[in-house]
Amino acid sequence: MKFAIALFSAAHAPSSRRALLFAQAALAGGHQIVRLFFYQDGVYNAQDTSVTPQDELDLARQWRAFVTEHQLDGVVCIAAALRRGVLNEEEARRYQRSAVNLSVPWELSGLGQLHDAVQAADRLMCFGGP
Questions:
Q1: Exposed e or buried b per residue across 33-54, where buried means at least 16 C-beta atoms within 10 angstroms of its C-beta
Q2: pLDDT exceeds 90 at position 70
Q3: Cis ω on the peptide bond leading into residue 14 (within 30° of 0)?
Q4: What are the residue numbers of the active site?
Q5: Could you tell me the pTM of the whole model?
Q6: For this UniProt entry, which residues form the secretion signal (predicted)?
Q7: Per residue, what are the HEC states of the chain?
Q8: What pLDDT digit, counting tens, does each position of 16-68 carry?
Q9: Does domain 2-127 have CATH number 3.40.50.970?
Q10: Which residues partner with 75 through β-bridges?
Q11: Environment class of residue 118 by beta-carbon count within 10 Å: exposed (0-12), middle (13-18) or buried (19+)?
Q12: What is the mean pLDDT of residues 8-18?
């Protein structure tokens, strides 16, 4: 089965951990992940500058390792990211900001990427959100 996964909540939220566990289990079960799409507060899972307390799971780092290890398509909604100050090098330059807190393996893109993923997948799994 092909899954598209959308994550709407930040790394410290329980739904972020559930989404990661689901994604890991899907791949372990022989399924495919068409795309991971981080939207709304989910964009915080992709930023480089979060510091997690030592006694907590660093889900942002775990997401990065997971996407990198499995060479997955990890897309961060550009509108949600900009609104929350999550910027790659190109957007930081465009908006004349000194901080860059989004890098490989993440890609900034629009909601059209979520639409395309839904069209290519058998199921859309959503975690977090209102």
A1: bbbbbbbbbbbbbbbeebeeee
A2: yes
A3: no
A4: 77
A5: 0.95
A6: none
A7: CEEEEEECCCCCCHHHHHHHHHHHHHHHCCCEEEEEEECHHHHHHHCCCCCCCCCCCCHHHHHHHHHHHHCCCEEEEHHHHHHCCCCCHHHHHHCCCCCCCCCCCEEEECCHHHHHHHHHCCEEEEECCC
A8: 999 999 999 999 999 999 999 999 999 999 999 989 999 999 999 999 999 99
A9: no
A10: 37, 107
A11: middle
A12: 95
pLDDT category, 129, cuts 50, 70, 90?
A: confident
Q: pLDDT at residue 74 above 80?
A: yes
At 119, list the tokens.
């069209």
Q: Where exactly are the structural domains of the chain? A: 2-127
Distance, first Cα to last Cα, the chain: 27
Task: Output the six-digit token pair for 75.
Answer: 């897309």
Alpha-carbon span 103 to 86, nearest angstrom: 10
Question: Which amino acid makes up residue 35?
Answer: R
Mean pLDDT of the chain: 96
Alpha-carbon separation of residue 65 from 49, 68, 96, 105 (angstroms): 15, 5, 29, 9
